[in-house]
Amino acid sequence: MMLRGRVLLRRPLHCAACLPPPATARLLAPSVPAAVRSWSTLSSPRSVHTEAHTAGKGCGPACSDPSHAHSSPRPTKSGGQQLPENYAALARELRKFLREDQVVSDPLRTLAYGTDASFYRLIPKLVVQVEREDEVVKALGLAERFGAPITFRAAGTSLSGQAITDSVLLRLVPSKWSHIDVLDPEGSRVRLQPGVIGGQANKVLGLYGRKIGPDPSSIESCMIGGITANNSSGMCCGTRQNTYNTIEDIRIVLADGTVLDTASQESRERFSQSHGHLLSELSAMAHHVQHSNPDLLARIKRKYSIKNTTGYSINALADFTDPFEILKHLIVGSEGTLAFISGVTMRTVPELPHKASSIMLFPDVITACEAVSALKLAPVDAVELMDRACLVSARDKLAQVGLSGEHGQDVAILLVETRADTTDELADRVEHVAKAVRPYRKVKEVQFTSDPRVFNLMWDVRRGIIPSAGAMRPVSTSVILEDVAVEVPRLAAMTMDLQDMFKRHRYDDAVIFGHALDGNLHLLFAQGFDSRPEQERYGAMMDELCAIVATKYGGSLKAEHGTGRNVAPFVEMEWGKDGYALMKDIKKAFDPHHLLNPGVLLNDDPQIHVKNLKPMPAAHSLVDQCIECGFCEKNCPSRELTLSPRQRIVIWREIQQLRRTKSDPARLAELEQQFRYAGDDTCAADGMCATACPVNINTGQLIKTLRATERSPWAQTVAQAAADHFALVNGMGRTALQAAHVGHRVVGARVMRALSDALHRVLPASPQWNPHLPRGGHAPSPPPPTATSKDQVVYFPSCANRVMGVSTSEKTEGRALPDVALSVLGKAGYDVILPEGLAGLCCGMAFESRGFPHQARQKADELHAVLWRASDHGRLPVLFDMSPCALHAKTHKPTPDESLGLPEAKKQQKLEIFEPVEFTHDFLLSRLQWTPREEGLVYHTTCSSKRMAGVDQKFLSVLKQCTGEAPAKRLGSLLLDSAVPCCGMAGDRGLCFPELPRSALKKLRERVASHPPGCSEGVSNSRTCEVALSEHAGVPFRSVLYLVDRASSPLNPAAAPSTSAALHALLQRKAAAYAIDPSGPAPPASPTLPSACTQADATPTPTGLLRNYK
C-alpha cells in the first residue's frame, strides 16, 4: 500500500534483542503485507510530530512546547465514522483546542474505549480524552451548546453499566490526573486527582502507616474518580470508612462548566454568588427531610445503617444542614450524573501493622451466617463469606494454603482477619475471635496465621473470585454480578431464599460470596443474551431478586457497586415514591438539561436493564475466559498510546464475530487495518497483563500467536536463515551499531536524529537512533582458571549484550557488561565457563516475539543443549546477564533430541538458571567484601523479573547491600522505584515504534527529578530496557552488575565461605522451585504483599501459625 509515495511496512522484522542492521530489515521486509498505520497521516506518529516541530509548529493547538513529541498518533478523516451533524460540529469545535488524537471517532477506538467491565454495550459517537480541568470545562460547555450528553470514564472497572454511553465519552488520560498530595506530616489527609489508582494512593500513604478508607477488591485497578463516584467501600471498611464517611473536600465541574472547590473559601464564596439558588434548593430539601417527612427520615436512617448505593446518597440530606456539606456528599455515589470530579481530599485511616487471618470452614451457609452474627461482636476487621462454588473456582489457590479435597456439597467459608498495634494485642484478639465461633459446627479446626505470604494467598483467593469464577462460564456468555445487602440477623434467611431462586431459574453455576460482616452479598452467575428466551429468563430472575431483597427483607439492591443501568428501574421499589421523587429533584437541580450520564441511576424505562446487552463471542482459546474486568490495564505500556490488553481482546472479539457473520465487510476491513498498528505493532507482548489478571490471561501471547499465523513462506525462509546463521546476524548488528557510533561522533546528535527520522520514514521497519544507543560490543574471552577456586559457574552473555557495547552517552568506565560480569565473578572466586559456539547462540525470544515459533524453539533447544553440557548436566548454576533471556530460558521445555545432546524428557533435569539479581543475591552477597556507596539511585525491575517469584524482593536486598540503606517504607530513602510496570522497549520494538516507550515512560523523568536525595544513575537488569530508560529518565541506566562491581571487592581467601554445600542443596531442589508459567505470573513470594484491608506494603509480622483452635 502506498501513502504519499512512500511504502509503509507493518512492523519491525529484525531480531528483537540483537539489533541487526537495516540491511537485515530490508531482507525481511517483503515477507510482511504492507499496511498503513491508519492513525497517522504519515509513515509514523513520530514523523508527524518531527515534521511539525521542524517547521516550528506544535503538535496541535494545545501544544505550546515545540520540542514536545506527543505519544499518540493522529486519526485520519477516513478513520472516523459518519457522525450526526451536531456531533460532527461538536468534534470540529473540540479540535480547536484539543489535539486530534484527543478527539476520537474511528470505529476501533470508540468500541475499545467505550467498553467497561459491565455486561452492557454502548458505543460512543465521540471519545474525548481529557488531560486538564480546563478541557473538561470547555467540553461541557460545548456539549450543552450542541445538545450532546456526556459520560465520564476513569478506569472502567464498574460493573453496573454506569460508565458507558452512545453519545460522548469523556475519558481521563490517567497519567495526566495522577497527582497525590499528602497534606500533613502524619498522613492523615490526602488530596487525590481522579486518575490515581487506589492501590497507588495506599502505597504512598503506607509510608505514614495510613491508607484510604475504601478498599474494593479492584483497588489495584480502579481509580479515585470511580471510587468517589460510586461511593466504594470494600472488604474491611464497612460503612464507617467508605468514601462518603472519609471525604473531606471535593473539587467538581458542574454541567454548566462552573468549578467548585469546597476546600477553598474563595471558591465557596464565588459559588454562593453564582449558584445560590442551587445551595438554597439543597437546604430546602434537607429541611424537608429532617422536619417534614418523618417516615422518609426513618427510612433513610435505617437503610444507611447497612451498605447502600441505590440511587443518590440522600443520607446527606439527613446528616447535614450546611449546603456545601450536603453538596459534596451528594456527589459521592452520584455516578457521574451530577458533576465531573476533578479532585478529592480524603481523611485517611490507620493501617495497623500486625495482622492475622483464618479460613474457617462450616458445613453449610446457614451455620456460617449464624457465626457472622457472633463475629460482629468480636474484634474482627473483615469477615468474607464464600460458598462451595467459590471453593471450586479457586481450588488451585486454596491448595496453596492447605485447603484441598472434598469438604461436602454445602460447605461454606468465612475468611476472617483481625489487626492490632502489637503482637501481644494481636494474640489476644485472635483468642477472642476463636472463642466467638467455638459454639458453631465447623468442618475443621480454626487456624490463624500471621505469615504475610500465607494470609495474602488467602486474600488473593477472595479478591480473585469475580474474574476466576467468571472465567469458568461457558464461552459466549456474560458474567453478571449482583450486589445486595441486608441486616446481619436476616442474612442467613435471605441467602437461603436467593439460593432457592437461583435453582428455580436454572442458574446452577451461581456463586454467592461477599462482605458478611456488613450483610453484603455478591451474586455471580453466567448469562447468555443471544436469544429471547435467555433474556426473558434473566428479566424474570431480576424481578424476583429485587422483590426478595428490597420488599421481603428491606435490604439494599445495590450495596457498593453503584446503581448504574442494572438497578435503575428498581430504585423506586426500594425507596418508595417520596424517596424517588426527591432523587429526581436532586438530578434536576444539578443538571436541568439532563446532559450528564442520562439513563444511569434513575431511569423510567422498566426494561432498561435488559437492553444494550454486551455480546461475548468466542475469539480465541487464549482469551475466551476474559470477562473484560480491566484489571490488566494498569500494567500495559501501550494503554495510553493505542490499546490495553482488555481493549485488544474486545476488538479481536469483534473482528472474529464480523468474520463469522459477514454482516459488515466495510467495518471489518477498517477494524482489521487499524488493529495492525493498535493491536499488534504497539503490543510489547511482555506478559505483564497476566500478572494482574486473576486467571492469568496473557494477551501478549495472543498477539504473538496472531503474528505467527500471518508469516509468509518467504518470511519463514528468511527467519530460518537468520536462525541458522545467527553469528552472522550478530556481527551485522555490531557493525551497524559501530557505524552509528562513528556517525554520531562525526556529525553530532542533531544530524544523526534527522538522518534516522528520514530513514524511518522511508523504511519504517528500521530502528530509530537515539543518543543512548551503545557502540558495537564484543563476545567475552574466558578468563584463566583460578588456582584456589573449587566453585564454577556457567556464564551466558545474552546476544544483546554481545552486540551492544559501551554506551556513548554514559560513564561506564569503558567496559561492556560481559567484562563487568567477569570482573564480579572473578572477585567472588569463581571459575567461569563460557558456552561453546557462543557467537551463534540465542535463547529464541527474539524469534518468538516476531511470530516465528519454530525458529524460536530451534534456538532455545540449541542453547539448552549447550548449557546442559557446559553445566555438567545441570550440576553447575548458569548466569544469564539479561533478565528477559533468563525468563525465556527458564520457561522453555526443551525437545528431547539426542543429536543436540538432550536426554529423554524423563531423564532430564532442569537447568539452574539465574538472572543477574538472583545470582547476586543467592551467591555473591556472602562471597564479596562490600563498601556501600551512599548515592541516590533509581531502580527499575523489568517485567520479566516481576514474573519470576521473589526477584523483586531480592533486587531490594542487593541494592541495600550496595548502598548501605534499605529501600524501606520511609521517607527520604536514597532508593527510588521507577514505578513503571513495563518500559515498553520490548527488545528493539521500542526503537522501531519509539512512541511506545515514550508513552510508557512519560512520567519517569518528572519522578526522578522530584526525588529529594537526587538520583545520579539508574540500575536495571535488561540492556535494551536500559536504552529506553536512559532516554526518558534523564539519568543513565546500566545493569545492576555495574553497581555490584563498584561496591564490592574480594574477600580475604581465608574468610571466603565455601558454597559447595549450598550449591549441592540448590541443585537438589525440585524443578518447580524455579518453574514459571509462561502464560502468567509466578505465585506470590514476597513477605510484604498487601493483606485484606490494604494495598500498601505490609509491615513484617511474626510468621507462622499463632494457634490452632477447636
Domains (count) = 4
> Overall 3D geometry?
globular
What is the number of helices? Answer: 43
Helical content band: 25-40%
β-strand number:
33
Strand content: 5-15%
Strand order of the largest sheet: 18-20-19-15-16-14-17-33
Low-pLDDT runs of 5+ residues are 1-79, 967-971, 1054-1110
| Mean pLDDT over the residues | 84
Structural class: alpha/beta
Query: Main β-sheet, in a few words?
Result: 8 strands, antiparallel
Distance between the termini: 74 Å
Radius of gyration: 30 Å
List keywords for this structure.
single chain, alpha/beta, Uridine Diphospho-n-acetylenolpyruvylglucosamine Reductase, domain 3, Vanillyl-alcohol Oxidase, Chain A, domain 3, 4 domains, eight-stranded antiparallel beta sheet, disordered C terminus
Task: Detail the topology: elements first, then pairings.
Elements: E1 2-3, E2 6-7, H1 22-28, H2 45-54, H3 85-94, E3 103-104, H4 107-114, E4 126-130, H5 133-146, E5 150-153, E6 168-172, E7 180-182, E8 189-192, H6 198-205, E9 210-211, H7 224-229, H8 243-246, E10 247-254, E11 259-261, H9 265-274, H10 276-291, H11 294-303, H12 316-319, H13 323-331, E12 339-347, E13 349-350, E14 354-362, H14 365-375, E15 382-387, H15 388-393, H16 395-399, E16 412-420, H17 423-437, E17 446-449, H18 452-463, H19 465-471, E18 478-485, H20 491-504, E19 511-515, E20 520-527, H21 532-552, H22 571-590, H23 645-661, H24 665-681, H25 688-692, H26 699-709, H27 713-724, H28 726-747, H29 749-762, E21 774-776, E22 792-796, H30 799-803, E23 804-807, H31 817-827, E24 831-833, H32 845-849, H33 853-870, E25 878-880, H34 883-891, E26 913-914, H35 916-924, E27 928-930, E28 937-939, H36 943-946, H37 951-963, E29 975-977, H38 989-992, H39 995-1000, H40 1004-1009, E30 1017-1020, H41 1023-1033, E31 1037-1039, H42 1040-1047, E32 1048-1050, H43 1060-1067, E33 1105-1109
Parallel strand pairs: 4-6, 5-6, 22-24, 22-25, 25-26, 28-29, 28-30, 30-31
Antiparallel strand pairs: 1-2, 3-4, 7-8, 8-12, 9-13, 10-11, 10-12, 14-16, 14-17, 15-16, 15-19, 17-33, 18-20, 19-20, 21-23, 27-32
Helix pairs in contact: 3-5, 4-23, 10-13, 10-22, 14-20, 20-21, 23-24, 28-29, 31-42, 35-37
